[in-house]
Amino acid sequence: DLSKLLEAYMIHWLVGDNQETVEILMSEEDTLRSTIPHWDGIAAFVRGQVKALDHRRETAPVAAAAGKLSRPSHNALEKRYSFEDAH
């Protein structure tokens, strides 16, 4: 799921190189919420960005392809993402 991948990226970005802390935060949601201020808002933002990408692909697939929001052979009804989608 792209949302979970991007949430993990945000945790890494906010915490830095402390792998032990990253692992704890990713495994304990209550600790994550109490450690990173506004985590619920950050996670909602990430999910919203993924939904917006899906919506653009589904409602205007030709424009999405022209705007590099999907690959040439991408099926708008499939929830598949590439590295470029996440980047």
General description of the model:
Helix content is 70%, strand content 0%. The chain is mostly helical and 87 residues long. The longest helix is centred in the middle third of the chain and has 21 residues. The radius of gyration is 15 Å and the shape is elongated. The chain starts with a helix and ends with a helix. The model has no long low-confidence stretch (mean pLDDT 83).
Summarize the structure.
The chain is mainly α and 87 residues long. Helix content is 70%, strand content 0%. The chain is elongated and about 45 Å long.
Features:
single chain; 87 residues; mainly alpha; 6 helices; 70% helix; 0% strand
Q: What is the approximate shape?
A: elongated
Q: Kindly report the average pLDDT value.
A: 83
Percent of sequence in beta strands: under 5%
Our Rg estimate from Cα atoms comes to 15 Å
Name the helix and strand elements from N-terminus to C-terminus, one letter apiece.
HHHHHH
Terminal-residue CA separation: 14 Å
